[in-house]
């Protein structure tokens, strides 16, 4: 083997090793080169014996050539160096990833498309972090600035941009074009002898056919498989047979509890379920109108196959079976009682969640959705009744944070998230309308806390563009908690439910409250006084407008 004596590198045959600045090939003058003459060489001794010349490691005293020392490292040392660099890189990356808790780094969102189709500067594949940069009016991150006057300036900017502008209601033909399958399944007329919107649908299967084999609710959730197993067993017994054909009764809800989250909707649902004339969907919150029909199972998982309307109708089969018994005259003496059955549905996202529109509906006007959930519900059920339960939006937001935050929950962390969300919302209203920002998917997912859910009046005004005011019952959680009997009587009257015995009424009104704050969340205490003052200022103009629309100053929440 041949070696370069100048730098101890193993040479291949015929290799002139031109990389070494001392090795110049055949023109190299050994007599003139000090390295070749042996100057500045220090022979290496081991056990008092000089090593062979091929094993000599030259240690040079010429400091101007120190950069060449890197190439003189042995393979082991070089590998150790590379390994150290890799470890340092991993440590730096892990440190950067801690920014993910603020939603700024490496957070994949199912809604990573552009915020507004009408804004050409925002591409469809724009990332969440890019959207945050777009909405930030300055480089200063106020998430950690606990200075009330500084944040108050942001709130003043938002308040100056608030305009409650009536939306244009789409016509029926436009809705048909958007959802042709839904309109082909749900008829425009229902059975006259039922309180609920019900109709007969021909069933083309046989006794061995599984009517729920493709139901997406059963496929994606193990919790509901027991319900569907029972429905399979009794399905054939509840068909209507006429002239060698089989018909099943299909029903939609008579009423909807449409909102808002963390405002007591679960408690109201649990109490109404105890009424003998009320039936609900097999699942408390199907979220079909807002999410499942668009293919959203979990917001963090992005889009899946869209749930067809048939899957949603399957959820009301238990109630439809009881109504079917009445219509066939099989209920006997209980016919009058069973005929009063009404069906309800209680997805708390129905009132406010229109986040999916941008991925399915075109021709938006200045970033505003051309179609909303209520447009489709009204198209099929113009006489539907709607119940809304609200609470002080300041307290609602803190409760929402405690319920959905997974780690590092504290009053200080909540304050920081509120400040960051306010800054993002300000950036949006500077460029777009209030409605465009409220229904903007990317902005809503970028905000660390759901500020927009507490803008009750924005959603209510849009529901009032399609439904009459007497079709909507708006309650306060504060009143519901302090006088349960009174609010439940309001609900019974609104739904035209019959009188109850004292025992039945006591069962409904005196049951323990549902879905209350968890003990570990209670231990965190209330929000900071500064945070409360900030949120009071932010929600004040919206509460004022809400009190005007409902002609009730209680919705100002001045004493809460």
UniProtKB/TrEMBL annotation:
InterPro entries: CS_Sulfotransferase (IPR052654), P-loop_NTPase (IPR027417), Sulfotransferase_dom (IPR000863). Keywords: Membrane, Transferase, Transmembrane, Transmembrane helix. Coiled coil: none annotated. The keyword Iron does not apply. It comes from Rhipidura dahli. It holds the Pfam family Sulfotransfer_1. The gene is Chst15. The keyword Transferase applies. The chain crosses the membrane at residues 78-97. PANTHER family: CARBOHYDRATE SULFOTRANSFERASE 15 (PTHR15723). GO terms for molecular function: N-acetylgalactosamine 4-sulfate 6-O-sulfotransferase activity. Belongs to the sulfotransferase 1 family. It comes from the Eukaryota. GO terms for biological process: hexose biosynthetic process. This is Sulfotransferase. Residues 253-517 form the Sulfotransferase domain. Its EC number is 2.8.2.-.
């Amino acid at each position: 083997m041949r070696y370069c004596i100048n730098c101890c590198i193993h040479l291949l045959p015929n290799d002139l090793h031109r990389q070494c600045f001392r090795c110049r090939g055949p023109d190299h003058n050994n007599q003139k080169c000090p390295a070749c003459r042996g100057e500045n060489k220090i022979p290496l001794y081991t056990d008092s014996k000089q090593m062979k010349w091929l094993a000599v490691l030259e240690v040079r005293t010429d400091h101007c050539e120190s950069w060449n020392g890197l190439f003189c490292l042995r393979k082991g040392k070089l590998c150790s160096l590379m390994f150290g660099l890799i470890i340092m890189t991993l440590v730096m990356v892990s440190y950067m990833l801690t920014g993910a808790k603020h939603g700024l780094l490496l957070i994949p969102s199912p809604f990573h498309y552009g915020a507004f189709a009408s804004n050409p500067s925002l591409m469809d594949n724009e990332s969440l972090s890019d959207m945050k940069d777009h909405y930030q009016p300055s480089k200063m991150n106020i998430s950690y600035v606990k200075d009330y006057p500084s944040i108050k300036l942001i709130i003043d900017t938002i308040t100056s941009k608030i305009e409650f502008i009536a939306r244009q209601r789409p016509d029926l033909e436009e809705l048909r074009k958007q959802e042709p399958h839904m309109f082909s399944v749900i008829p425009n007329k229902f059975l006259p002898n039922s309180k609920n919107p019900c109709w007969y649908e021909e069933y083309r299967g046989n006794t061995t056919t599984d009517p729920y084999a493709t139901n997406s609710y059963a496929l994606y959730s193990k919790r509901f498989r027991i319900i569907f197993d029972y429905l399979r067993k009794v399905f054939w017994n509840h068909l209507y047979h006429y002239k060698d054909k089989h018909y099943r009764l299909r029903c939609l809800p008579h009423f909807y509890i449409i909102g808002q989250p963390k405002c007591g909707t679960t408690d109201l649902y649990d109490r109404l379920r105890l009424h003998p004339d009320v039936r609900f969907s097999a699942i408390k919150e199907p979220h079909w109108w807002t999410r499942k029909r668009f293919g959203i199972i979990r917001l963090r998982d992005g889009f899946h196959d869209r749930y067809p309307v048939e899957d949603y109708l399957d959820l009301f089969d238990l109630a439809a079976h009881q109504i079917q018994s009445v219509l066939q005259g099989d209920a006997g003496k209980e016919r009058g009682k069973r005929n009063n059955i009404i069906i309800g549905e209680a997805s708390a996202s129905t009132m406010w969640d229109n986040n999916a529109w941008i991925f399915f509906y075109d021709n938006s006007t200045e970033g505003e959705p051309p179609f909303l959930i209520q447009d489709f519900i009204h198209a099929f059920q113009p006489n539907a009744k709607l119940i809304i339960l609200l609470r002080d939006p300041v307290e609602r937001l803190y409760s929402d944070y405690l319920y959905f935050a997974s780690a590092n929950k504290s009053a200080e962390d909540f304050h920081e998230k509120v400040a960051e969300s306010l800054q993002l919302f300000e950036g949006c209203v500077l460029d777009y309308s209030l409605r465009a920002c409220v229904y903007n998917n990317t902005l809503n997912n970028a905000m660390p806390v759901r500020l927009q859910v507490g803008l009750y009046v924005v959603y209510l005004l849009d529901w009032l563009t399609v439904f009459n005011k007497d079709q909507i019952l708006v309650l306060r959680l504060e009143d519901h908690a302090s006088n349960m009997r009174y609010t439940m009587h309001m609900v019974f009257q609104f739904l035209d439910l019959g009188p109850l015995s004292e025992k039945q009424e006591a069962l409904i009104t005196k049951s323990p409250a549902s879905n209350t704050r968890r003990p570990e969340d209670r231990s965190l205490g209330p929000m900071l006084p500064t945070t409360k003052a900030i949120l009071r200022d932010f929600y004040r103009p919206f509460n004022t407008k809400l009190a005007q629309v409902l002609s009730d100053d209680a919705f100002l929440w001045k004493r809460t």
